[in-house]
Amino acid sequence: MAENEVKQSTFKRLTNRYRLIVMNDHTYEEIITFKLTRLSVYVLSCLIFVLLVGLTTALISFTPLKFYIPGYGSQTERKELTNLKLKTDSLETYIKNREAYWDNVKNIISGKADLNLDTAIITIPNLEQSPE
Questions:
Q1: Of residues 13, 125, 131, 57, the one with CA closest to residue 5
Q2: Residues 13, 42: contact at Cβ < 8 Å?
Q3: pLDDT digits (tens, 9 = 90+) for 29-42
Q4: Where are the domains of the chain?
């Protein structure tokens, strides 16, 4: 029963109405009046927080402000990096092929080459003789 009363009192505290009055300090004139609850203030503050985070994220990600983030880089730097990666890959391929070529040449010179020669006899027709 005490737990139920705690839940009701918490809910009651969240839904109690309060009045917020903005007054002119010199004339004591009411400028504006708000009727609020703790729950509405909580929901409104959460909504404002989510909107500010969303707007800030959108502002940074969809505008050139993202280039001021450390480590992001600029468009030209990204293009240069891509070109350098492509050149590096092609140079690595070229070096591997050249090393394989020179390894084959060394093996042939030293006699370690595993040459699979075709031993089938190739007959070349003699073109000088006419087939009669």
A1: 13
A2: no
A3: 999 999 999 999 99
A4: 1-66, 74-109
Q: Which tokens belong to 64? A: 């050139």
Which ranges constitute the DSSP H helices of 1-132? Answer: 2-15, 38-62, 75-110
Within 10 A of 83 (CB to CB), how many other CB atoms are there?
A: 10
pTM of the shown model: 0.50
For residue 71, the 8-state DSSP code is T
Stated length of the chain: 132
User: Tens digits of per-residue pLDDT, 70-122?
Assistant: 877 777 888 899 999 999 999 999 999 999 999 988 988 888 877 666 667 77
Distance between CA atoms of residues 122 and 118, nearest Å: 10
Q: CB neighbours of 24 closer than 8 A, spacing ≥ 6?
A: 31
In a 3-state reduction of DSSP, which class is residue 1?
coil
